[in-house]
Amino acid sequence: MMQGRHPNWAAPILSAVILVLFLAAWQLAVHDTSPTAGMDPEYAKLMGAAANTGKSAIPTPWDVAVKLWEAVRHPFYDHGPNDKGLGIQLGYSLLRVLLGFGLAAIVAIPAGFLIGMSPLAGAALNPFIQVLKPVSPLAWMPLALYTIKDSNISAIFVIFICAIWPMLMNTAFGVAGVRREWLNVARTLEVSAWRRAIHVILPAAAPTIFTGMRISIGIAWLVIVAAEMLVGGTGIGYFVWNQWNNLSLADIMLGILLIGLVGMALDRLLGLAASAVTWRE
Amino acid sequence: MEGVNRMHPYLSIEGIARHYGSRTVFRDLWFGVERGEFVCLIGHSGCGKTTILNILAGLESPDEGALVMDGREITGPSLDRAVIFQSHALYPWLTARENVGFALRSRHPSWSKAEIDDRAQAALELVGLKDAALQKPRELSGGMKQRVGIARALSLKPAMLLMDEPFSALDALTRGTLQDEVVSLVGGGRQTAFMITHDVDEAILLADRILLMTNGPEARLAEIIINPLPRPRDRANLHRQPGYYALRNHIVDFLVTRSRLLAGTRPDGWTGRNVPAISTFDTPHSLEIISP
């Protein structure tokens, strides 16, 4: 076959083959391990039934599928703080991410506009941005917990602080890069500053701004899992951590799968929004 | 020869200059544009042509001198001086009609959306783009994009039309068609216009007067050609007009040799306020200059 040319169905078929191979390898790897032989007795005790029945502690793909089916059938049950449906847990995480991300957008896009339009403001704020940007959002957590006290709001703050930088940088970059001739057209038409910002600069910079938003939501979704492991209570991150305490590896794998799927969906949504505002020449 | 300085030209450029550090691109530049007149400026790149147009548009300020239009100093851009940009400069996220509408909205903030749409549509029909009104610039050819640019500028009914090599990015065929349309839309004394070009035939076709600039740095206005060819002019028959070749040769000679030979020189007694104006072209200037 010639390079770069393949029928439309080739990639999905190949993906399915890879999936089947992966599941088969997984099944084989965990299927028949010898039981407690060579296992530290303490660890064997810890592993309980799993160690004694000769079954690997790693679940089979089938175990995970059963868990997934249960989760799909009962996504929203609530049996107390340690046993909630996965729909509820994901809902909490999404709510936190959307709140933190939304607040970050409200701050970052206007601020990025100012930085992009004023080289002086950009140069003055640049050192602060450069220092704050690489800080792991989780490093803010203790400070947030101390000052805000509420763990829920702290988690939202951490999302806010990690989501703000890509949007700020991209907005500033997009606004600063608006083509001079487009601004000159607006100037010769005596367009007011406000109308220029809304009708010229914003649409011109929109593709770049949306790229920043897409990066931000990806980071926010990465960070929420870690943040919820720390603050606990609710959310998909807390769920994974809780299942680790329960030694339920099948639930952990289910959690990983769902985190991946939701993250992909968020990215796709922003990708769609970005393509709606992207102009081509 | 006649003096070019009348008392009050409609647009008066008075001793403007542009310096970059110690380098002077041009200085002591004086000329006027009368009401209803079409003036072309020809020169090689580097003589500051685009800068001069930007200064006329109010997008840049001169380092020296001033501009006066209709008795008032030009201090910034104005809707009364519409610009047709070399690169068309349409907004790619707007349709052709919205691009024209954007300009109309600036001119007439109180108009309803329907009114803006109607007028924009009419402006597009004037340049032959009736069916392309709802298309985005990327769906239009280079010539069509430039037509939208022309429609946008003309829809403002500006006191003065400024054009920065508007057809230089187009192929020869499209350029010719657009030149014809500019003749019919702008020519004949209805629209005051100033155009930068490096196309000799374009200048002869369109201009009442042609300003010839020497090469930069220290570029200056060397001659003002008063176009003797009668209007209306027709691109297809222009070269059959008596006097056409003498005029064309004169300008080509200037561009090929004298623009370079005269670069940086300032003859004794020369001032920017008294540039020779030439209206007869019987003498083959080239022979005098080239023979060593």
Question: Key terms for this structure?
Answer:
heterodimer, A: 281 residues, mainly alpha, MetI-like fold, 12 helices, 76% helix, B: 292 residues, alpha/beta, seven-stranded mixed sheet, four-stranded antiparallel sheet, 11 strands, disordered N terminus, disordered C terminus
Q: Would you kindly provide a written description of the structure presented here, covering whatever features stand out?
A:
The complex is a heterodimer of chains A (281) and B (292). Helices cover 76% and strands 0% of the residues of chain A. Chain A has a domain at 86-233 and 260-277: MetI-like (MetI-like fold, Orthogonal Bundle). Chain A contains 12 helices and no strands. In chain A, helix 4 crosses helix 12 (249-277), helix 5 (86-117) packs parallel to helix 8 (151-176) and helix 10 packs parallel to helix 11. Chain A is mostly helical. Chain A has helices at 10-31, 41-47, 49-52, 61-73, 86-117, 119-132, 141-148, 151-176, 180-188, 193-231, 236-245, 249-277. With 292 residues, chain B is of the alpha/beta class. Chain B has helices spanning 49-57, 96-107, 113-126, 142-155, 172-186, 200-206, 244-261, 285-290; strands spanning 11-20, 23-33, 38-42, 64-69, 72-73, 81-84, 160-164, 192-197, 209-213, 221-226, 277-278. Chain B has a 7-stranded mixed beta sheet, sandwiched between helices. In chain B, strands 2-1-4-5 form a 4-stranded antiparallel beta sheet, with no helix packed on it. The radius of gyration of chain B is 19 Å and the shape is globular. Residues 1-6 and 285-292 of chain B have low confidence and may be disordered. Chains A and B meet through helix 9 and helix 10 of A and strand 6 and helix 2 of B.
